[in-house]
Amino acid sequence: MKNNVGIIILNWKQPKLTVETIDSVLKIKNRFFEYQIYLVDNGSPDDSLKIFNKKYSTNPKITILEFSHNLGFAGGNSQAANLIQDKHDLILFLNNDVIVNPNFLDILVNYLLENKQISAVSPKIFFAPGHEYHQDRYQKKDLGKVIWSAGGTIDWNNIYGSNYGIDQVDHGQFDREIINRDYISGCCLLIKSEVIKKIGSFDPLYFTYYEDADLCQRLLKNNFSFSYCPNSVIWHINSGSSSPGSPSHDYFLTRNRLLFGFRYANLKTKFALFRHSIQILLFSPSSWQKKGIIDYYFGNLNRGSWK
User: Fold this and answer.
1) Which of 104, 103, 141 is nearest to 125 (CA)?
2) What percent of the chain has pLDDT over 70?
3) Confidence grade of residue 243 (pLDDT, cut at 50, 70, 90)
4) Do the beta carbons of residue 226 and residue 219 sit within 8 Å?
């Protein structure tokens, strides 16, 4: 009997990108599984739902879900997972700004079937051509081969996460399967439903940023393993709703770094985080960084002060 995969794709005010992602997913091969796409609109104030209903309402492979307001990346995906977890053996969290290789999910599903000890897995993620951070670094032949993520690592002394291989042209240097890197990216993460039922999925308190690292730490603390699988590949357009230096970036990264660090770091690092948070309050020119610090200490999480 084939495994059954529920594919969650969350949209917030990006209908064009979301349609491109879904049309890409509809071309996948599925030798090892059956699947259902859950197109989840996260309270978009635009005409996203109208576009989706017009294009997909008669497609039996797509179920359209609507949330009344923006629950954030973490909350929207978590709520959707809660709704569908009893219907599927596996759940795939997939960004709405990716293009997938037709066999990417076949490879991931088969990987979990062959490695019973692994509970979650993510693919090698490239920048979509033309969406690299540093476009002037690359020759034309490199486009589509620039790595966005080959799993993730955390600087535990300072609580900063970064993707392995980011900005590097792929020459096979990350083609070894790695179990239990510090985290795997929530951009594309396949996880067993039975595990979600035991420990939950993304924590809505984060709203956005650090939620995938938090999930992976909870996996480890509950004796579950996760892995990076380089044979499966997708391309990330990397067009999130915030960018480095933007107010939302300043707010959520600052606040959630404290949330994550005070949950999982050692005592020495926690003290360093506290000291750094005081420095931000005193000297940062960013009002949103300061709001992030204040909101963490007063327990104003999830969406917090962000409007």
Assistant:
1) 104
2) 97
3) low
4) yes
Q: Above 60 in pLDDT, residue 242? A: no
CA distance 246 to 288: 9
Asked if 152 and 182 touch (Cβ cutoff 8 Å), the reply is yes
Q: Which amino acid is at 281?
A: L
**pTM for this model (two decimals):** 0.96
- The residues pairing with 123 across neighbouring beta strands, listed in sequence order, are 229
Q: How many residues does the chain have?
A: 307
Q: Which residues contact 59 (CB under 8 A, 6 or more apart)?
A: none
Q: What element of type H or E holds 231?
A: strand 225-236
H-helix or E-strand spanning residue 25: helix 15-25
Domains of the chain: 3-236 (3.90.550.10), 247-297 (no CATH)
How confident is the model over 269-293, as pLDDT tens digits? 999 999 999 999 999 999 999 999 9
Closest to 285 in 3D by CA, of 248, 256, 247: 247
Lowest mean pLDDT segment, chosen from 148-152, 159-163, 169-173, 240-244? 240-244
Q: Where are the alpha helices (DSSP H) in 161-286?
A: 193-199, 211-221, 247-264, 267-283
**What is the token pair recorded at 154?**
């955390």
